[in-house]
Design a protein that fits this description.
The chain is an alpha/beta fold and 607 residues long. 31% of the residues lie in helices and 21% in strands. The two termini are 47 Å apart. Bound molecules: 1,4-dihydronicotinamide adenine dinucleotide and 2-oxo-3-(phosphonooxy)propanoic acid. Residues 56-57, 78-81, 104, 291, 293-295 line the site of 2-oxo-3-(phosphonooxy)propanoic acid. 2-oxo-3-(phosphonooxy)propanoic acid binds at residues 56-57, 78-81, 104, 291, 293-295. This is D-3-phosphoglycerate dehydrogenase.
Length: 607
């Protein structure tokens, strides 16, 4: 309308974010910076007329906040973890979420080392005692870290830096990360990548965790895990509160199960009175800091410049560099592939959670996959979105962003970082789904691992040599994705929502037993299906094949034939039970199912 003055876009910053970044915005935009913080109620009011929101870890960006932000175009996290932002709701509302995935990594790693040494040498307690006027050297004798063993859980960006620093301090470093790239880990000087968390616990003098907080890492270390550790062991947390179960950690310290802890993060920040977190902060054997991992001048400058540059880009209508919820598929170009991209993404997520969860030994890092397209799909000229969909699905269960940061531009880089190699085969032999014919179907095959990949070989040995290859097949019908084969079993279910997959002896009474365990826990079953051993061979004749995503190396020799048929011959008496569940299920349910008679294995899959 003539005479209307366009408003200057407004940016709300309800936390302390470095001026080095905000200065980049202040000329062109109206920046409302509130370094003292705002209450949740104030946020709901303030958000109504802003175009961009820049936060750190203290602001909870809930679905309600996002709905109230009717003009909101971008939410920027000046840091790594986006667990305080409802990314799903932002995506649904068309709001871009960006973060700074690398700006504070050095700071977080250095803070971990600071807590390691402070815990070893009682620095916090010594300071308090000395300030109180006491000179009590005899009570403050510490331990050395050199020549000691450090266990790292989560060898991502921070974990790797901590590993390098601690090797520099003369420590022996071992690690657990089923998704890490074994080649990269070896080059770093980490002595061993263990196949199971419990394998390293009795050995470590110090334990540090660097995973995101996810459903699969919540309470990863509890009473059972602490009980395996040395009474002299000390634990560190500069990742997220809740990966160590706080009540179990408190008990372990009170009962001398372990010797000490250095904690930067808590389930509720600041911790509330009369909670385990509160008691941990005040515990004699704990040194605690108020989420200071990223609080250095340099890190704050890095993350602020990084996200403010991205906010300006989004407000100008350009693409940000680190979108947490970037679209996988561009709308027009890939319309026809969209349902298959969804299918393949779900197959990737199913693979990781069914075959490669922390309690199963197959692993993701350094693994070779084959995607076989059958039917019409075999003729597609550009399958880049399908490859990106697979990478997104494979990494989503263990990444902070639920894999939503993976897109067709960066999928190759993400795969390379994890050592994942994907080979594509365009099969000409029609459908792979038995006698029935579907327009197109897809086979995902995880192949045996290249010679010399020690950690994977260890995993394979532990699994009786069968962890080498697994198969998932699927198809799309009426825009709905279906899984038609899960390893040795023929199935037909839609990979949606929460699934429980039970591997069991195929004997009468199993269904009733499982039903009664779930009934006891009040778990609602949406659907249930029994998948029997497949009878048909899984040949993939007449295909043309090309390696498209580059990973650690292209070792065609290593692409050994699957052991599926041998497996069928060996075990005639097995089935899979696939249950669709309403809501979520807790660890106790899984444990009860695992110990039920005739159940060989249980996996929880969230898609
Ligand atoms: N205290 C602080 O101020 C800071 C905390 N952080 C937090 O540190 C954590 C790690 O950050 P980055 O290294 O940047 O993340 P990253 O994504 O680079 O690495 C995470 C690693 O954890 C592994 N992982 C996931 N699930 C696992 C499981 N169940 N068992 C073993 N390993 C598992 C992944 O494979 C990955 O290698 C995040 O939670 C982040 O928010 C980061 C910076 C500052
Ligand atoms: O970047 C992260 O994940 C952090 O935990 C840092 O949090 P902060 O920005 O210091 O509130």
């Amino acid at each position: 309308m003539a005479g209307t003055i366009p408003h200057k876009p407004r940016i709300l910053v309800p936390e302390k974010v470095s001026q080095d970044g905000l200065a980049l915005l202040s000329g062109e935009y109206e920046v409302d910076s509130r370094p003292q913080g705002v209450s949740p109620e104030e946020l709901l009011t303030l958000i109504s007329d802003v175009d961009a929101l820049i936060v750190r870890s203290e602001t909870k960006v809930t679905a309600e906040v996002l709905r109230a932000g009717s003009r909101l175009r971008v939410v920027a996290r000046a840091g790594v973890g986006v667990d305080n932002i409802d990314v799903e709701a932002a995506t649904a509302g068309g709001i871009i979420v960006v973060n700074s995935p690398a700006g504070n990594i050095l700071a977080a790693a250095e803070h971990t080392v600071a807590l390691l040494l402070a815990t070893a040498r009682n620095v916090g307690r010594a300071d308090r005692i000395t300030k109180a006027g006491r000179w009590e050297r005899g009570k403050l004798v510490g331990v050395e870290v050199g020549r000691k063993t450090l266990g790292i859980v989560g060898l991502g960006k921070v974990g790797m830096k901590v590993a390098r620093m601690c090797i520099g301090l003369g420590m022996k470093v071992i690690a657990f990360d089923p998704y890490a790239n074994p080649d990269l880990v070896r080059q770093t000087g980490v002595e061993r990548l263990v196949p199971r968390l419990v394998d390293m616990l009795p050995e470590v003098d110090f334990l540090t965790i660097h995973t995101p907080l996810l459903a699969s890492t919540l309470d990863l270390i509890g009473a059972a895990e602490f009980s395996l550790m040395k009474p002299t062991a000390r634990v560190l947390n500069v990742a997220r509160g809740g990966v160590y179960n706080e009540a179990a950690l408190l008990d372990a310290l009170n009962n001398g199960v372990i010797a000490g802890a250095g904690l930067d993060v808590f389930t509720k920040e600041p911790p509330e009175q009369n909670t385990p977190a509160w008691e941990l902060v005040h515990h004699e054997k704990v040194i605690s800091t108020p989420h200071l991992g990223a609080s250095t001048v340099e890190a704050q400058e890095n993350v602020a410049v990084d996200v403010c540059t991205q906010v300006a880009a989004v407000l100008r209508g350009e693409l940000p560099t680190s979108a947490v919820n970037a679209p996988l598929i561009l709308p027009e170009e890939y319309r026809a592939l969209k349902p298959y991209a969804k299918l393949i993404e779900r197959m990737g997520g199913l693979y990781t959670q069914h075959f490669a969860s922390p309690t199963t030994p197959a692993g993701i890092g350094g693994r070779h996959f084959e995607l076989v397209y059958h039917g019409d799909l075999a003729g597609v000229s550009s399958s880049r979105p399908l490859l990106a969909a697979l990478v997104r699905g494979l990494v989503s269960p263990f990444s902070d962003t639920g894999g939503r940061h993976v897109n067709i531009v960066n999928a190759t880089a993400v795969a390379r970082e994890k050592g994942i190699v994907i080979r594509e085969t365009h099969a000409h032999s029609g459908s792979a789904t038995g006698g029935e014919v579907y327009a197109s179907s897809v086979t995902l095959r995880a192949l045996a691992v290249p010679e010399g990949t020690e950690s994977q070989q260890d995993r394979d040995k532990k699994d009786g040599g069968d962890a080498g290859s697994q198969v998932i097949e699927g198809y799309v019908s009426g825009n709905t994705a279906y899984i038609s084969r899960l390893d040795r079993f023929e199935a037909s279910f839609s990979p949606e929502g929460t699934l429980l997959i039970l591997h069991n002896h195929d004997e009468p009474g199993k269904i009733g037993g499982v039903g009664s365990v779930l009934g006891r826990h009040g778990v609602n079953i949406r659907f249930m299906q029994v998948a029997s051993l497949a009878k048909r061979p899984k040949s993939l004749e007449n295909g043309r094949s090309e390696v498209v995503v580059l990973g650690a190396r292209d070792d065609t020799q290593a692409m050994r034939a699957s052991s599926l048929e041998e497996g069928v011959k060996k075990n005639g008496n097995e089935a899979l039970m696939i249950l669709g569940i309403d809501g979520d299920v807790g660890k106790e349910v899984i444990e009860d199912l695992r110990t039920a008679e005739g159940i060989l294995n249980v996996s929880l899959v969230r898609l």
